[in-house]
Amino acid sequence: MRQSKLFGKTLREDPKDEISANARLLERAGFIYKTMAGVYDYLPLGLKVLDKINEIIREEMNAIGGQELFLSAFQPKERWQKTGRWETGNEVMYQFKDNSGHSLGLAWTHEEAITEIATRFISSHKDLPLFLYQIQTKFRDEPRAKSGLIRGREFLMKDLYSFHTDEKDLERFYDKARDAYLNIFRRCDLSVYVTEASGGTFTKSYSHEFQVLSDAGEDWLFYCKKCGYAQNKEIAKIGVGHLCPKCKGKIEQGRSIEVGNIFKLGVKFSEPFGLLYADEKGKKYPVVMGSYGIGPGRLMGTIVETHRDERGMMWPDAVAPYRVHIIELLGKEKVKKVKEVAEKLHQELLAKGIEPLYDDREEKSAGEKFADADLLGIPWRVVVSEKTLEKSSAEVKRRDKQQAQLVKLSQLKNFLAK
Amino acid sequence: MRQSKLFGKTLREDPKDEISANARLLERAGFIYKTMAGVYDYLPLGLKVLDKINEIIREEMNAIGGQELFLSAFQPKERWQKTGRWETGNEVMYQFKDNSGHSLGLAWTHEEAITEIATRFISSHKDLPLFLYQIQTKFRDEPRAKSGLIRGREFLMKDLYSFHTDEKDLERFYDKARDAYLNIFRRCDLSVYVTEASGGTFTKSYSHEFQVLSDAGEDWLFYCKKCGYAQNKEIAKIGVGHLCPKCKGKIEQGRSIEVGNIFKLGVKFSEPFGLLYADEKGKKYPVVMGSYGIGPGRLMGTIVETHRDERGMMWPDAVAPYRVHIIELLGKEKVKKVKEVAEKLHQELLAKGIEPLYDDREEKSAGEKFADADLLGIPWRVVVSEKTLEKSSAEVKRRDKQQAQLVKLSQLKNFLAK
Fold this sequence. Notes:
The structure is a homodimer. Chain A is an alpha+beta fold. The first copy, chain A, folds into two domains: 21-309, BirA Bifunctional Protein, domain 2 (2-Layer Sandwich), CATH 3.30.930; 322-417, 3-Layer(aba) Sandwich (Rossmann fold), CATH 3.40.50. The first copy, chain A, contains twelve helices and 23 strands. Chain A has a five-stranded mixed beta barrel with strand order 9-10-13-11-12. The first copy, chain A, is elongated, with a radius of gyration of 25 Å. The two termini of chain A are 21 Å apart.
């Protein structure tokens, strides 16, 4: 992609109305646009990151047998009255009437929807277990939406729902889902602590949260660096000064971002909707359920919070909008040869599927180009200039390293392909 | 995919509350679930079709230089007051207040949003032309949502917006976009008539509609079969009995579905938002815009309306949820060899990327399996039974043909790969 054509120029200054680092950097770099508090538009660079995160999530959900579907945002009042959440959830749920006076709500979660739908298709133990997920937009009326992509009023969510004959089968899948979640976070280069937590509005049964330490977090965590053991402060039985119950290490305290959660729902939703299955003898039981959430946008915001320095973002390879940032420096003499080499490299990397962003902007100085490259945070920076060409080379540098190195043009493709 | 595991069983009877053929068939076949009038959930089979349509659209939009982004559904009142459409559009726009009393709307189109965003990034003629698109959920308060996926209150939309220095440049791109649209419809196996139409609420300049003849349509068309010339009845200057102004052929009349539209917006949106560019001399002009819409869900509904018979749907290869439907008939003796061959074929096609659906359901009769296969409408049906194995063959049939043929097992993979 030619940077001269890319929609989304960098801004010279931080946006004035953003406090969180992720929103400041993403907006300044042209990844997102703020439409209102907690509501962001994804510009081309931002959407590329989001798509990559979504694809990682899809792969991991499919690997544990998840089937993808896509549910509506609009929800009928009657459906949510079955669980009482039309009333108890009205602080978080946008509710309104259409022009014909009918009450509607916008889904902030989909337990009611998926349970109702499942009643059409599940009737026998042979239909179980079943794992359904979607990546879809949710809406929540958040009074405190000041954390950029980390807490939105409109945001993407991956929600998976599992259906089982009994608790034991739920347990088995729950552990698999937890491992799949750990894969997702690992692939996004995030270090997570898994904490046991209360079930919130969902369930009285227990749940787990996946937490990433960060100043931008809204939770407090007691954790042990040595073994990874952690508890959410809200329900913690340990504290600073205690010894880790697992490894006797030191317990520390820090703010953290909840990047995912998994819940054992039990029969909380299947009972009000009459979601039953018949066992081998024809006897009917309520289906046992679990739910598993990750916010791809929140994940993106968390990656920015944890992968940055004073000059900008530093994307992990797996979710970077582009893998290589080619920067041509034509110099004052507008050296033709530099453009030719950069153009050729751009074409060759495209052909190899390496996804280059090519800074072909002639009006920008070397300083401006480097500053933009650091802000955008593409993992590999490749500079082509008259100076590097004297040595038949380009200068290659990782965004997260200080050291640059000259790589012969003839070896560049293979160097970057690794 | 094993059909025994697939979420979304077929229903024995048509849903009672659906009049349109597309909703009846899609719901009965387990592709969609109706949450309320004009609001559908996409189950795994339906989402597969939708994803394929989206991918075709993406390819064609990228090919004409489109850059994808993803805008929010939530819209601030102030933004829409700039064009007066907060008030004039309030019959179609869902508008409500959040818990803190702030007015919000749900986007039914995104001209206001994209124009506002563009003002941040467009300032010079060097920033033009520019082509931005998204595939995103829209909401419209439709009193008459009775046409299944063809008219929704919540629906996916591909909307592209183009930005130009002048009308002439807009004209050039407009023609390219029209051709890209024709590619999309051709790839979805839809015969479209292109009609000139009024600009509706968008513009007083002219626009074009892409129309597919169908009883399920809501528009009336005067058209000439011989050369493809057509006019929308609303603004038609020809009628039945007239001769086609292009080829002197016979003009006929029929109902049609509008599957896409393209508009020349001119400066209607750039002026109120102050979206200006400076020319070479620094003089400022309003940016000239165009907008280009296709509803992927409506496209899916239209394909069903035009590709079906009394037994079910008939998907074109490019958008079929699966390309091959393997049906094993174990017979009363539950012949082991049949399952082995079907299993092996399933694995081999998967490895070849041919996307098989494998009807491995043991409790279903041959009749039930054939009826389901016809309802689902997967292009190739491959039957493996004791009888076909006697000839070391499987029985292969296209959904849209009467004739079946025996193909040797050894040749089957290559036969289907074509």
